[in-house]
Amino acid sequence: MVDVAPAPPEDLTDPVTEPLGPVPDPHADESSRPRMPWSARLLLAVPVAVLTVFFLGPFALMLRTSFYRRVQGGFYEPAFVLESWTRLTSEFYVDRTIFSILACAFVAAITVAVAFPFTWYLTRMRPRFQVPLLVLLLSALALSEVIVAFAWDLILGRSTGITNVLVWIGLMSEPRSYTPGFVALAIGLAYIAFPYCVLAFYPTLSRIDDELVEAATTLGAKRGAVFRTVVVPLGRTTLVAGFLLVFVFTLGSYIIAQVLGRPEHWTLSVFISDQAVFNSNIPFAAAIAIFLTVVSLVVVAITSRLARQEVAS
Amino acid sequence: MIARLPRTLIISFVMAFLVAPILVVFVASLNANQFLDFPIEQASTRWYQELFTDSQWRTAVSNSLTIAVASAAFAVALALPMAFVLHTWKPRLTQVFFALGVLPFMLPPVISAMGALVLWNEIGRIGRIENVIIAHGVFFSTIPLITISLALRDIDPSLDEAAMTLGASGRRRFATIILPLLVPSIVTGYVASFVLSLNEYIIAFMVAGFSVETLPIKIFNSLRYGFTPTIAAVSVVFTAISVLALSVLARLGGLEKLLGGSVTER
Amino acid sequence: MPQTTTRPTPAEAAPELDTPGRGGLRLHALRRSFGAVRAVDDVTLDVPAGRFVSFLGPSGCGKTTLLRLIAGLDRPNGGSVVLDDVNITDRPAPERDVGMVFQSLALFPHLDVRRNIGYGLRIRSTPRHEVTQRVEELLELVQLPGLGDRKVTKLSGGQRQRVAIARALARHPALFLLDEPMSALDANLRESLQVELRLLQQRLGITTIMVTHDQREAMTMSDVIVVLNEGRVEQVGPPLEVYRRPRTTFVARFMGTTNLLRGTAIDHHVVSIAGVPFDLGAERYRIPPGADVTLSVRPGDAELQVTAAADVTEPNSLHGTVTFVRDLGGTTECFVDCGLDEPVVVLGAARHIEGVHRGDPVRVRFAAETCTVVTD
Q1: Alpha-carbon gap, residue C236 to A109, rounded angstroms
Q2: What class, spelled out in words, does domain A79-312 have in CATH?
Q3: DSSP letter, residue A18
Q4: Which range has the top average pLDDT, A263-272, C101-110, C326-335, C355-364?
Q5: What does the pLDDT read at residue C87?
Q6: Residues in A touching B38 (Cβ below 8 Å)
Q7: Residue C103 — pLDDT band, cuts 50, 70, 90?
Q8: What residues in B contact C135, CB-CB < 8 Å?
Q9: Which chain A residues have a beta carbon less than 8 Å from that of C286?
C-alpha cells in the first residue's frame, strides 16, 4: 500500500469525522417494499370479505348441500347421502358430460380456426378500418344470449329463415328448419364465443411487429407462408388459450343450448338450472355445479400455466 | 387480388356472420303482422310503441336498468380498492387476492347463479332485487379489477414520488393524482359491467327470476309462451343501448389500446 | 477561510438568496442494500449550504439511490441524514423540505402548467392569490411567461424541463435535487440548459444536488463533484481538482482520457517508469521507496517533441514512436508507443503538434506538477 502524504487541504467538503449526536438506525430490514398501513389493510379487507362471503361461501354451501337429501315438494333436509353424486355417475349424465365436452371442443376448434386469421387481418388494418370492425365485434358481444338465440332461431327456422332465400335463388327445393339441432347449436355457440376469442387474440397478434412480416416477405415468403411460419408459431400460446377460453365459455352456455339445441344436446349448465328451478332438486343441482366447477378450474389452471410460459419465454 | 382472396373471404364471412342476427332482429321488429314472417310484407313501428306502453315490458326495462346501474357501481366499488391496494403495497398474498377477484368471471355464470341461489336460500331472503344486484356486482367485479389494475401499471411511478416530494400525503396523492388518471379505466369497467349486466340471463333468473323480471328473462319467457314482434323490438332497443354505451367507450379513444393492443401507426 | 472560487463565474447581480445559510446537509455512514447488493455503502458527506454538488458516476454506482435517500423516497438500512442540524432520517418524503426534478420529469399529465407548478402550494392550503402570485414569479424565473394555461402534454422537451424545475422550487425548499434532469433532451438543448440551470442556482443560492453520469455536465455546473463507484465515495472536490488531481485510477479514468504510468518508487518523491526517473516534487509526496506507484497525467498536460535522440535519458519524459494521429480540428491527439502496456496519449493545440506523422520518433514530457499519484 502506498503511504501518501496528505494532499493540499480541501476547504469545501471535508468528510465529517464524528457523528452529530445520536445516530438512529431505522429498521434494518432489507425489504424494499413499504409497510402497509392499517387503512390500506382495511381497504383491501372489505372487498375480499365481500368476495369471500358472496363467492367462496356459496361454494362451501353448495358442497354441503350436494350431500343433502332431497325431499319431495321442493325442499331438502340436512343429511349426508351420496344419491346426488351417484346419479351424476349414471350413464345418462356421463353421456351428457361427454357430449358437452366434445361439442364444446368442436365449437372451440372451428371458432378459433376462423377467429385467429380474422384477428390477424384485423390487427394489420389501419385504425380507420379497425375501429368500426371492433365496434361491430363489441356490439355482437353486447347482444344478450337470449337475443342471439332468438335471432338464429329466426334465421335457421323454416318459415322465416335463410333457407327461404336459398329456395328463392334456386339452390334448394323447399325450406328447411335447422333449429333446434346440432348445427344451430354450434352456430349459436360460435357466435357468442367469437368476439371473446378475438379479444383474447388481439393483444398478442397486434404486438407482432410489422417488421417481422416484412422480413419474412423479403426472404421470399408469400402471404400464406408468412401466416404459417411467422404468425402461428408466435401466437401459439394464445391460440391454445383462446381454444380453452371458448371451451369454458361454451361449456357454461345455457340459453343457446336450450333454444337452439334439442334435449339430447343440453349441456351441463342447462341441467343445473333445470334441476334447481324446475325440478326443485337443489342437492343434485349443487352436485352438478361443483362438478362443472372442477372441470372449469382444471381448464383455467391449464390456461394460466400456458400463459405464464408465454410470459417467461 | 387473388392473393388476398382468403383475407377478403374471411373478413366478409365474419362480417356477414356477425351482422346477420342483428339485421334479422331489426327487420323482424318492423313487421306489421303479428306473426314472425320473413321477409315482411308491411312495415310498422307499432311494436316499439307497445314496448313503451305495456307496463310489463316497462317494468322489465326498469328492473334491468336498475340492476345494471347499481351492480356496475358495486362492481367498481369492489374492484377499485382491491386493485389500488394490491398495486401499491403488493402484499404477500397478492396473487391469491387477485385470483379471488378474477375467479368469479372465469367460471361459467351458472355456477355463480347456483351459488347465489343456495346462499340466499340459506339466509332466507329470496327473490329480491338486491340479491341480483349483489350477485351481478360480485360476478362482474372482475372487469373493473382488470381494467383498473392495467391502468395502475401504466402510471409512471415517478408521478406519485413527485407528489410526495411536494408534500402530499397518501390520501391527497390518491385523490389528486391517481384517481384522476384512473377515470378512463373506471369508466370502461363500469360501462362493460353495465352492458353485461343488462344482457345477463342465468344469474338474474336463478337468483330472483320469478319475482324480479329483467328484460332478458322476459324475452326468454315470451319466446316460450307467446310470441309477438315486440320481442324483436325490445331486442333492437336493448342492443342499441349497448352499442351506444360501447361507442362512447370507443370515442373515449384508443379502443385498440383498451383491448390491450400495441399502439403503433400503420 | 481559503479561497473558494474554483472557476470564473459570469458577472451578474448579487445572488438573491431566499434564506442565506439554509440548506446545509450532512450524511453520516449512510447504507442501503437491496438483498446482497450494497447500493450505498457507508457514505459520509458534508454539503455546505448554497453549493451546487454533483453526484457523478457510472450507472449502478448508487448515486440515484443516494439522492432518493436524501429526498426521503427510500429509507436507509443504517446511517443518518441531517439537514440544517435537524435529523430527518426518519421523515418520509412529504415531510422533508426538498424539491426534486425526476429523470422522467414526472409532470402531472392531467394538470396544466399552472396547476403543476402550484401543486405543492395547494397541498399546503396556501391562499389562492398567493399561489397565483408565486406561480407567476416562477414562470418568469424559468422563462416561460404566458404558458400557464398550456397542458403539459403539449410542451416541448425544454419547456417541460423548466416546468419541472419551477414546480420543484415553488415551496422555497432547502434542498434542490435533480436526477439526471437532462437525459431526455437532445444535445444542443442540454448544453444551453446546463448553463441556465447553473445561473439560476447561483441566483437563488439554493443548495443543489444533481445526479449525472456525464462528467462534462458535472464539470460545467458544479461547485463540488462527488465521484461515486459501487456505492462508495471515491473522491470529493471542486471540478478542476477532481480532474487534475484524481485520487484513484477509477476517478482518473472516469473524468476523462488519462495516461496511467505504472512504476516503482526509487526515492521519496521519485518514481521509476520504464527505467526513467520521474520527479514528482519533494513538497508534494512522501512515498516509501520500493512501493508500486501509478501516475496519472492528462493528455492535455503532456508535451510532445519530435526528436530522434532515443538514447538520452531525460527525467520526467519518455521516448517513443507515434502510432496514430487524430486531427480534431483545433486540437490534435497523438498516440505514442513508449514501450508501456498502453500507448501514451498526448493532446495539444494543432499548431503545437504540426507536422507529426505516424512513425515519427518523439519525446513526451510530463512536468512534475502534472503527475498525480493514484491508488487502485
Answers
A1: 69
A2: mainly alpha
A3: S
A4: C101-110
A5: 93
A6: 154, 159-161, 164
A7: very high
A8: none
A9: 3-5
Record the pTM. Answer: 0.82
- Chains B–C, number of C-beta pairs less than 8 Å apart: 62
Cell of A84: 346426488
ipTM over 0.85 threshold: no
For Cα atoms C105, B180, C161, give the angle at the middle one, nearest 5 degrees. Answer: 15
B13: in domain: no
How far A116 CA sits from the closest chain B CA (Å)?
A: 10
Predicted confidence (pLDDT) per residue in C18-36, tens digit: 445 688 999 999 999 998 8
* Residue found under cell 507515434: C322
* Nearest-angstrom CA–CA distance, A40 and A49: 14
CB contact under 8 A, C72 and B177: no
**Domain for residue B119, yes or no?**
yes
Burial of A151 (0-12, 13-18, 19+ CB in 10 A): buried
Residue B233 domain-assigned? yes
Q: Where are the domains of chain A?
A: 79-312
C335-348 burial, b at 16+ Cβ within 10 Å, e below that, comes to bbebebeebbbbbb
Domain that holds residue B81: 58-258
Number of domains in chain B: 1
Which of 177-206 (A) contact B at CB < 8 A?
A: 191, 194-195, 199, 202-203, 206
Asked whether residue B117 is domain-assigned, the answer is yes
Give all chains having 3 or more CB-to-CB distances under 8 Å with chain C: A, B
C162-186 pLDDT, tens digit per residue, is 999 999 999 999 999 999 998 888 8
Task: Specify the CATH number for the domain of residue B138.
Answer: 1.10.3720.10
User: Does B219 contact chain A (CB < 8 Å)?
Assistant: yes
Q: What is the DSSP letter of B204?
A: H
Mutate to test the interface with C, among A1, A13, A18, A20 (most CBs of C within 10 A): A13
The pLDDT assigned to A10 comes to 33
| Cα B147 to Cα B196: distance, rounded to the nearest angstrom | 15
Q: Residue C6 — left, alpha, or beta (φ > 0 → left; ψ -120 to 50 → alpha)?
A: alpha
User: For an interface test with B, which of A32, A35, A55 has the most B Cβ atoms less than 10 Å from its Cβ?
Assistant: A55
Residue of B nearest to C72 (CA): B165
